[in-house]
């Protein structure tokens, strides 16, 4: 509105024409100025101020009395979200952060300005969208996606913490953050094509120059120095034909840039890798054929093929080359049925077959790798190795610290601050992915499909049911999946399954205010149970089973005051004997002070009971569980104020 008022004032203030005409004439320079003002329609400043204090105390019998058992993280920060749009077709966006840690305010006076997001975005003629700089993208689970942890009916009090931790790395809705160029075409060619979309990608995934340690900067410890800069180029075509038919195809190229090599010339050709992925998919809505108007019943399928070049040296040091071929795919039926009034039923049944050699870093690199967050200074240090003997799944899932200033011993005598988080937006090398699979997966939540639907070496079925009774405020879900794995040691007969995976669970969410007339505001209770298991038929192998229970409450007591509470429990068993029991509880309030301002405070704790060391074999997950012994507790208090503008 302000731009029209300003333009009107400029018009009123313009001088009349020299011939005495009572109409106003506008000088050319002034006309250009008015057009410039009107073109600034998209200039805006938004963001959030936040200040908070998070405290954690750890207790354990036999804890070294010389280490600190308390950790307090207090901070004040502001994120400026600046958007500039000179016209309707193009805009620029910058998200900048100013951050002060309370603990080191006096020793860190030159606090820097962190750039969180920089991009130029546009849509020319309403048909040519593009993004230059930072952007997020998701195509399909087998081509371009971010595998995330999916918790069935996660209590709101915990879900908000995890969402905040993930947002630090722009992780949301399985979209992968990238940096580069994304250009597309969206149009319709009716009556044949209802929609046709073509997208081109060109980004950098990794660089040989990262991890710049500076006392004024927070460093993402997940992004390590690599031997090559890695580039990604791709194209995607997606069409919808005659409303009911969809077709798509994707080509991806991931290549190490040899010119950026840190390796000797003799090793460049051997170690530089190139991976190509070709993908095809199709869908067909058959609801009209089976007489279900108002519903959707869709048959679908997707097949992806990876071609990864490999090189190795034999005993005579002769360089050999080869091409590793892999495939992945699934097909099934998805239905959204509205047969009964006020009741909606969704179901998704699919069969999946991923070969062990399928490789696609853009779809398999996880966004979560379980890491110790709070009370890290209570961990043991042996030589130059930190032993994380107080790891818990809940601490890794829900806690993060943007700028942690460690003691000299905690960071192996490096004083540079770093980010403490289990989340990352990195795209890993195949070597790193193999290491993650062998050493860094959390069996409590990453047992069955740790790399999403692109997880290699899986064959089986998935059934997902969801029902919603709108009038009663009731929603229920059920999940069942069963897979086998074929990744075999050399001595086993071909075709004999080594591993079998199972997943079985369900949950319910109910807004009881829809039935209880005495409740003025919503009061939602939820609960879920999910069992995941891995059976190893190798002699002396390890069977793993993990049960995950969630119970949550969200009750708006007053117009602006909401009470939140949650309970989570994970029981992980090895060979039905060795157990790791983890319990997480929290309760608190969310108070909306005014529009855009929210005060959140809660308290809770984590209890971990390790009845012994988890056994180790070639297929055991997560090294940190090997060192969990005895019992330890962590107690938390969290108070934060957020003001959106």
Structural commentary:
The chain has a 22-stranded antiparallel β-barrel. The protein has a two-stranded antiparallel ribbon with strand order 14-15. The protein has a two-stranded antiparallel sheet with strand order 16-17. The chain contains 7 helices and 26 strands. With 645 residues, it is mainly beta. The model is unreliable at 1-7, 9-24, 488-495 and 612-629 (pLDDT under 50). Helix content is 10%, strand content 50%. The two termini are 18 Å apart. Helix 1 (2-12) runs antiparallel to helix 2. The protein is globular.
The computed structural class is: mainly beta
Shape summary: globular
Query: Counting H and I runs of at least 4 residues, what is the number of helices?
Result: 7
By oligomeric state, this entry counts as: single chain
Percent range of helical residues: under 10%
Q: Beta-sheet strand percentage?
A: over 45%
Spans of at least 5 consecutive residues with low confidence = 1-7, 9-24, 488-495, 612-629
By DSSP, the count of extended strands is 26
- Report on the biggest sheet: 22 strands, antiparallel, barrel
Q: Mind telling me the C-alpha Rg?
A: 28 Å
The overall pLDDT average reads: 83
Question: What is the terminal-to-terminal distance?
Answer: 18 Å
